[in-house]
Amino acid sequence: xxxxxMEQVVAMAGEYNLIPVAIRLLADMxxxxxxxxxxxxxxxxxxxxxxxxxxxWARYSFIxxxxxxxxxxxxxxxxxxxxxxxxxxxxxxxxxxxxMLRTDRRPKPKDMPPVTGGASGLFGYDLL
Length: 128
Fold this sequence. Notes:
There is one protein chain. 18% of the residues lie in helices and 21% in strands. Strand 6 and strand 7 form a beta hairpin. The protein is α+β, with helices and mostly antiparallel strands. The strands form three sheets. A three-stranded antiparallel sheet has the order 5-6-7, with helices on one face. A two-stranded antiparallel ribbon has the order 1-2.
């Protein structure tokens, strides 16, 4: 069963622009890597694990593909690719990312992982 229900999503839609939806599955015969392998051929697939402090097993695994938005910076130029539409703003990648994340309004359900969306990706040391 999906959490929240469709009725709850509709009720939250007036207040939030992003509503996380989750389904719990029994996956005792699967590993995150095995599941990720099913999606690895897709464009820009990624697997993030929440391993902390040398623990062998991750508490959460996040798998994603085909991002709807990408912000890249190279040689002092910023490029935004939003669903195939490219723009070249004058601002830095950091400024663009901060501005976009400020518009993120989502509920923080107690029965979901601590991360239910947002930005993920690679940030090089020279970005800062």
